[in-house]
Design brief:
- The protein is mostly helical.
- The protein has one domain.
- It contains four helices and no strands.
- Helix 2 packs across helix 4.
- The protein is globular and about 35 Å long.
Length: 71
């Protein structure tokens, strides 16, 4: 239910690209390994894409029980 509220509040529409970028970031966090700059891998990323990707990262953290601060 909370995810529906977040999705409705979002001004940006999620695409497969956002999920891919979010998954790459999550893998980097979990593996504690650096990855190449995302703008080099996805040449058409915009500031709007980065906000949506951040929302996906926050949602994932919340589902894992993390306390989100400073978002």
């Amino acid at each position: 239910m909370a995810e529906n509220k977040i999705a409705r509040r979002s001004r940006f529409q999620r695409s497969e690209r956002h999920g891919t970028v979010a998954d790459k970031l999550l893998a980097a966090y979990e593996n504690r390994a650096p990855i190449a700059r995302l703008v080099e891998q996805h040449l058409k990323l915009t500031i709007h894409d980065s906000y949506l990707t951040q929302q996906l990262q926050v949602r994932h953290g919340q589902t894992q029980g993390a306390t989100i601060r400073g978002h």
